[in-house]
Amino acid sequence: MKLNKSVEENINSWISQINVEYKLALSVDCVIFGYTTRDMFVALTKCDMPPFEGDYSLVGDIVQPSENLDQAANRILQERTGLTNVYLEQVQTFSETNRHPLGRVVTVAYYSLIKLNEYYDKLPGEDFLIWRNIKDVDTLAFDHKEIFDVCLSRLQKQVKEQPVGFNLLPKKFTLNQLQELYEVILGVELDKRNFRRKLKSLNILQDHDELQTDVSHRPAKLYSFNKKLYEQRVADNFLF
């Protein structure tokens, strides 16, 4: 079977002749989630671009010619928060033709997780970043509310299927702290007895035979996430 001429041609032979109307910019937008023991926040910045002046937007930037997507996301996080080695997850591409007022801009969304209590003093002030409770996010510039909603849904799905939430806990934690984490991320109240029965069935926590110290209430037992055991169980087709 003979292919038509357009199929036979190598794309490299005509790509340099593509009209400017086919060209676009590529950006990265980061949904930076900050967890405290009782709430989840997202980092926002004030937009100065018409017609969204004064509105809040997610943290993002254009991908530079010398970097790939992950490098761009890590650069944006470091420039905006000063933090490195932050948990980062690529989520989805957003490519509606009218999503940006300056022209054709396709963006790739990431979400990241930080312990807000631990890093708050090291983060930029409110003149640069504002931390808003995820329950209070209603409207954002561009299509950033849609991006926020998609990333939050991805986080909520992943926290039920993968042990990503352990990144937000101390190395040693109590079962109450773990339950609070899930309740804050999922936005629901969990039954204590059922939650602990489920944890026991997973068999991925290490009991350190230690109790909390320096607490005003009755000290609770301390546990940690056993990554090695989890990986072994995944190899045996274990479902989190």
Descriptive overview:
This protein is of the alpha+beta class and 240 residues long. The chain folds into two domains: 24-160, Nucleoside Triphosphate Pyrophosphohydrolase (Alpha-Beta Complex), CATH 3.90.79; 169-235, Winged helix-like DNA-binding domain superfamily/Winged helix DNA-binding domain (Arc Repressor Mutant, subunit A, Orthogonal Bundle). It has helices spanning 5-8, 69-81, 116-119, 144-161, 175-186, 192-202, 227-235, and strands at 25-35, 40-46, 56-57, 59-62, 87-94, 105-115, 130-133, 205-211, 221-225. Strands 1, 2, 3, 4, 5, 6 and 7 form a seven-stranded mixed sheet that branches. The radius of gyration is 22 Å and the shape is elongated. The relative contact order is 0.14.
Question: What structural keywords apply?
Answer:
240 residues; alpha+beta; Nucleoside Triphosphate Pyrophosphohydrolase; Arc Repressor Mutant, subunit A; 2 domains; seven-stranded mixed sheet; two-stranded antiparallel ribbon; 7 helices
